[in-house]
């Protein structure tokens, strides 16, 4: 899911945002291109839509950063490079302890 999201952001939305921005800025310089695209009626809303998608991605990113066991835990892990995690013993978690090769199976 993360790879698909970044693929869409970096390979679709970013180039589309740059291209539509150039077309908007250059509409007077390249009037034939603006006419081909039916003026700016198509380009400006597309540019605005991609900008809102970037904003939504940013808000979602910031929100997901705060979903750790404390609101700043994931941010500390990103900045510091590591995260302290409480480890429970296997028998406390309700599982069976396994210290070595299984007994009774020969083969």
- Outline the low-pLDDT stretches: none
The counted number of beta strands is: 0
Largest sheet: none
Structural class: mainly alpha
Strand and helix order: HHHH
What is the distance, rounded to the nearest whole angstrom, between the alpha carbons of the first and last residues? Answer: 42 Å
Radius of gyration: 26 Å
Helix tally equals: 4
Beta fraction = under 5%
Task: Average the pLDDT over all residues and give the rounded result.
Answer: 83
Outline type: rod-shaped
Number of domains: 1
Percentage of residues assigned to helices = 55-70%
What does this 3D model show about the protein?
By secondary structure, this protein is mostly helical. It has one domain (2-78). It is built from 4 helices and no strands. The chain has helices spanning 2-25, 31-36, 43-65, 73-80. The radius of gyration is 26 Å and the shape is rod-shaped. The two termini are 42 Å apart. The mean pLDDT is 83.
Please write out the topology.
Layout: H1 2-25, H2 31-36, H3 43-65, H4 73-80
Key words describing this protein structure:
single chain; 107 residues; mainly alpha; 57% helix
Summary of the model, kept short:
With 107 residues, the protein is mainly alpha-helical. The chain contains four helices and no strands.
